[in-house]
Amino acid sequence: RSLTTGTVHYCGLTRDGVVYCWGQNGIGQLGNETFISSATPVLVQTDERFVAL
User: What SS3 state is found at 12?
Assistant: First the structure.
């Protein structure tokens, strides 16, 4: 549905309101409750559904 970028990470919003992020994660910017960077999309850990990024 949409994509957004930070300086060193990226996030995508699905039609279902779910967000996946990938890239550097040194300060938790991927939203997956870790500080481990990922080259592949990881699910943002929340029960909320998003409508925009």
Answer: strand
Q: What are the per-10-residue average pLDDT scores of the chain (53 residues)?
A: 94 97 97 96 96 95
| Overall domain count for the chain | 1
Q: Is residue 49 part of a domain?
A: no
Tokens of 29: 């910017």
Q: Domain of 18?
A: 2-43
Q: Which two tokens stand for residue 3?
A: 């994509």
Rounded to whole angstroms, how far apart are CA atoms 50 and 44? Answer: 11
List the beta strands (DSSP E) in 1-53.
2-5, 9-13, 19-23, 38-43
pLDDT score, position 15: 96
